[in-house]
Design a protein that fits this description.
- The chain is mainly alpha-helical.
- The protein is built from eight helices and three strands, in the order αααααβββααα.
- It has a three-stranded antiparallel beta sheet with strand order 2-1-3, with helices on both faces.
- Strand 1 and strand 2 form a beta hairpin.
- Helix 1 packs antiparallel against helix 3.
- The longest helix has 23 residues.
- Bound molecules: manganese (II) ion.
Length: 198
């Protein structure tokens, strides 16, 4: 079974004014589609065909760079679309909210740490909130389309929240102002989806 581009749960313009419709359309229908197409081409005829994208990521050191780049791209973006929703944002509650407060001191302290990871990731990549092997929350970042599921990641764990800081995620609306895009991202985070992963 070849991988397929997942449909969004909301319209391309649903996250405005925080993330504009044109960016969403190109990001989903062009960039993510290209990762899916290139991943399918890269795994055709190999033993990665038939594996889940999670299992491919967990064993990514076994595969060619094209699988790492495009498999990571497919996993990361499939997750990213689910972590956002219109009319969301706010502050996480329940067990996740408690874990963030006890780990980082406060929600604001977590926001600062996550934003710093996203801002300082040089070039293209992602910043993450993960649950590590000990069950603890941790903020980390990865280059390019790597992610914390990958066996080659410096800091490994299950991604709970991630932000794409490739220029293609924000350049049309925010140009070079990555920090403004990161500020806007807090308004569209679907904490219910993050909490379900936790
Ligand atoms: Mn992207």
């Amino acid at each position: 079974m070849a991988f397929e581009l997942p449909a969004l749960d909301y319209a391309y313009n649903a996250l405005e004014p925080h993330i504009d419709a044109r960016t969403m359309e190109i990001h989903h229908s062009k960039h993510h589609q290209a990762y899916v197409t290139n991943l399918n081409n890269a795994i055709a005829g190999t033993d990665a065909e038939g594996l889940s994208i999670e299992d491919i990521c967990r064993n990514i050191s076994k595969y060619a760079p094209a699988v790492r780049n495009n498999g990571g791209g497919h996993y990361n973006h499939s997750l990213f679309w689910k972590l956002m929703a219109p009319g969301k944002g706010g502050v996480p509650t329940g067990a996740l909210g408690d874990a963030i407060t006890s780990t980082f001191g406060s929600f604001d302290a977590f926001k600062e740490k996550f934003a710093a990871a996203a801002t300082t990731r040089f070039g293209s990549g992602w910043a993450w909130l993960i649950k590590n092997a000990e069950g603890k929350l941790e903020v980390t970042s990865t280059p390019n389309q790597d992610n914390p599921l990958m066996d080659i990641a410096d800091v490994k764990g299950t991604p709970l929240l991630g932000i794409d800081v490739w220029e293609h995620a924000y350049y049309l609306h925010y140009q070079n102002r990555r920090p403004d895009y990161i500020v806007a991202f807090w308004n569209v985070i679907n904490w219910d989806a993050v909490a379900a992963r936790f």
